Amino acid sequence: MKTLNFNLVTKSGNENLEFKFNKVLAIGFAGRDQKKVMEHIHELEEIGVAPPESIPTLYPCADELVTQEGYIQVLGGETSGEVEFVILIQDNKIYIGLGSDHTDRGLEAVSIPKSKQICLKPIAKEIWLYDEIKDHWDDLILRSWQKLDDNEEKLYQDGKISEILKVEDIITEVKKAYPNLNNIIMFSGTVPVLNGFVYGTNFRCELEDKHLGRKISHEYVVEVLK
């Protein structure tokens, strides 16, 4: 098993959580609104990606792809992040984090599973207890920004978490393929991009909970190997 250390932020204070995992999944096409799902599918079709056979779709990823570092290296100039909430389960407790399903868009047109496997999966160091936020879950907000070569940061994604399948629904779907969900990390699926895919040099994302007045944020630099 791999191990990551998180800062668990709760209503009563913060504590270190050692999280052990041996399964990582990226959930694709996980929108609640089928119209929004089709928008994302059409975004992908525009860059040559064939539509999925079924939705949602589960993409297994190697454990070692998950990183808390603020820096990743990629092959080629057509990769981009996707802001996502992340479900982490250990000892039958559900935690919520923030991550980016960074994906190679060029390879995605050839094979979505391979495009998920070729890039690291950044994840923030802070997590929350799902039990503390599930009563106002649909009000949480996901956002991301990208910097381009001109170093100007632009809003890339901005949507309510209610656009994505509920945590319980994702768990139900995943259990059909993987009955034992302990020690697992699941990238949830994303909200639509605002103005088409952008391939930036820096990706910043956040998960905001206005009810409890807190945010999880993460930022990383993208270096294209030459």
UniProtKB/TrEMBL annotation:
One family name in Pfam for this protein: DUF2848
Domain of life: Bacteria
A GO molecular-function annotation: catalytic activity
InterPro entries with a match to the protein in the record: DUF2848, Fumarylacetoacetase_C_sf
This protein's name: DUF2848 domain-containing protein
